[in-house]
Amino acid sequence: MVKSCIRVYANQAQIDDCKQSIEDVSASVTRISKALNLAGNEVRLKILFLLDKESQMCPCDLSDVLGMTVPAISQHLKKLKEAGIVKYEKIGQTVFYSLAESNSHILNPIFNLLASEKQLAI
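Structure tokens predicted for Metalloregulator ArsR/SmtB family transcription factor (122 residues):
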């Protein structure tokens, strides 16, 4: 197997432009990649979907809906919170989680796809 490039010439302007483009979006790529990586877990995607649908939920409600223990849900929420994908608000003794606005544009297309898939299945 040949592992060398066989191009006739390098388009240095294109290469330089592409390098600059990658540099320009580097921070966004990191943030979006992190969000998608976390949302790639089935349970976390379900949690994010529910938070989008309901605006906010507590871990106990998520536990009931998903049939999981509260500690298991809390571990997923912790990862999402640390990544800045969800935020929380404590009201009395209850903690309510919601989606962070900063990532809504990343996740909304996924939620729209989930909604359209649901309609196709009907």
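Residues 8 and 121 are 50 Å apart (CA to CA).
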